Amino acid sequence: MTLLPKRSAAFAVAVLILLFIGALIPARADDGYRLWLRYDKLPNNAVLRYRKQILSMYVAGDSATSSAVRGELASGIAGSLGERIAIGRDAFVSGELIVGTPASSKVVGSLHLERELSELGDEGFIIRTFRTGNRSVTVIASTSDRGLLYGAFHFLRLIQTLRPIDKLNVAERPRIKLRLLDHWDNADGSVERGYAGRSLWKWGELPARIDPRYRDYARANASVGINGSVLNNVNADAVFLTTDYLQKVAAIADVLRPYGIKVYLSARFSAPIELGGLKTADPLDPKVAAWWKRKADEIHELIPDFGGFLVKANSEGQPGPRTYGRDHVDGANMLAAALAPHGGVVIWRAFVYDAKPGYDRAGAAYENLQPFDGKFASNVILQVKNGPIDFQPREPFHPLFGSMPKTQVAPEFQITQEYMGFSNHLVFLANMWHEVLESDTYARGLGSSVAKIADGELFGQKITAIAGVANTGSDRNWTGYDMLQANWYAFGRLAWDPDATPEAIADEWTKMTLSHDPNAIVVITRMLLGSHEAVVNYMTPLGLHHQMWGGHHYGPAPWWNSYDRDDWNPTYYNKADAGGIGFDRTMTGSNTVSQYFPSVRDQYSSLATCPDTLLLWFHHVKWDYRMRTGRTLWAELALHYQEGVYWVRNARRQWAGLKGTIDPQRYAAVARKLAIQERDAVWWKDASLSYFQSLSKMSLPKGVEPPKLSLEQYKTTDLLDDFARGKGNFDENHKD
Prior knowledge:
By secondary structure, the chain is of the alpha/beta class. It has helices spanning about 5-25, 45-55, 65-80, 105-110, 115-120, 145-160, 215-225, 245-255, 270-275, 285-300, 330-340, 365-370, 430-435, 450-455, 485-495, 500-515, 520-540, 570-575, 600-605, 615-620, 635-655, 665-695, 710-715, and strands at about 55-60, 85, 95-100, 125-130, 135-140, 170, 180, 230, 260-265, 310, 345-350, 380-385, 410-415, 465-470, 580, 620. The protein folds into three domains: about 5-170, Chitobiase, domain 2, CATH 3.30.379.10; about 180-500, TIM Barrel (Alpha-Beta Barrel), CATH 3.20.20.80; about 535-585 and about 620-715, Alpha-d-glucuronidase, C-terminal Domain (Alpha-Beta Complex), CATH 3.90.1330.10.
């Protein structure tokens, strides 16, 4: 073994000892904790190939991030190859891996990569194989340690997915600057719309005790390029801005920082009243502005790299500037001024809607915010949900995308499955997100995709961002269902590169997380890629939306009409009656279709050109309307519900065929979840068709199984019982 610089020797010895001890631990069932960073030994043929190409490793630098890179590469390579890796010198040696910046590594400096690296920015990296005669060396280079971290994870991903590494020429950078996870976590440890246990953040223990899980959370995020975490619920509690809690936040920030992750906080707009003793939170009151400035100064004294505030204002009961007769610009810009001296940003959520007679909730955010284009401060980002309602199984892209060219607009996706079966249903959300990102807004003609707005290419915005509402919790497997780890992974990969394909992401995640068995890879990726369309089919086919049970949002209730607010009732959205079904958003209805650019507007406005997938979103259609298939709308609707059920049944059979190729613990856990999903899919189909048939008075088409219960039974049965939560016993028809 070659000699180490003194600063690295102790660390390397510790790593090697830990790896040796780890090798002595007997294999056991996999509980899912390691996510996609499992680093188990690869198939023998791959091990033999990689051993020849990685004989030793050298990571330059002595920062906390450099240490993280060094440890990750050492454990990742050793675990994958089944043996320890030597720690090498910063010199060309055959089969050596050298990691560093031009400033920290003589080898990297000698390669004259400065110009290429500068074009990639401080988070970009190069991985390149250099040859000298019959010798080779692999270099991971960047202008910063953060870039080296991302490059190291990319290199490990290549190994985990059995890709060749002998002739590498990789140059990557993130397309979007701020890649954020939004945690809807509360001070009491609960998680709003969380289905994987309690909060990750143990506020009662902080800052004195740091849970080791925080570091593993940071590793997982860094491995897919996520660089920001909003720690608390958008329905914010002012307690998070108190000095005691800021010290707790600072302790978390210290753990996340070496992995390139900044912390953000959801800010309660009325905090100056609740914490500062002021009589108002009016953003134009000088005392209010001064209070926020002092609070921003205090935060940055504790957390110098604090990212900024996420704000939900004047929405669903949250306080905001309109409480005081001001507008969204007044509120956002006041907070932005407080953060600007520290380089912080304000992320202002566009999820605002007013309850007023005869309005269309789908058009509310556009009406409230589009007139303010160009008026927000330069460090304000408008965070817009992917669709105009609320994270439904399928929605058209939000009309604010493309309509605010002078405003920094960021997409917001929901990783946690509030409307799609919680942590009980397999739904690979990369398909849905990719569908939105590749949607063409026509804001500047053909090719004006949502992705090009998000990454700044279309309008040249200086701060680009994308956010995902996290699906993590205290459950040992992080997400409550092993398969749903794929959505956390997929969000990170799409945030890094919005053009990444669901197929490639599914393939990567499967190989890194579950199996290298060729048949298992084919089966699992097929399940992932088909899952979203299946869920749309058995929940909200043909453009239906917001058809769930009230309150908890689990299970169907298309008949629900008991809320005082019309726009919280499913009947408001399906408009089902004896004549037909669907929400008319064309010129003959609410005309919210006019919020889109003409090419999109015209396509959605016509029955002849509106995609079947969004038909009932934009049109109220007669039950006997003839679809492109030649079938009536009623028959088409019923067959889509049935197709969703068939898909889940087939997925269960496919998974059963993988027994023996997946570790027994996760195999059994997934099988149990799929059984729940089949039960729920049948319930969704039967309850929905029972209600709609009571209005259409039409017979079910051939091939659609009739409901087993009466409509009244479906109306009075809450599907969110112990069985749906995954805690109950299976009946004879739903055994594992």
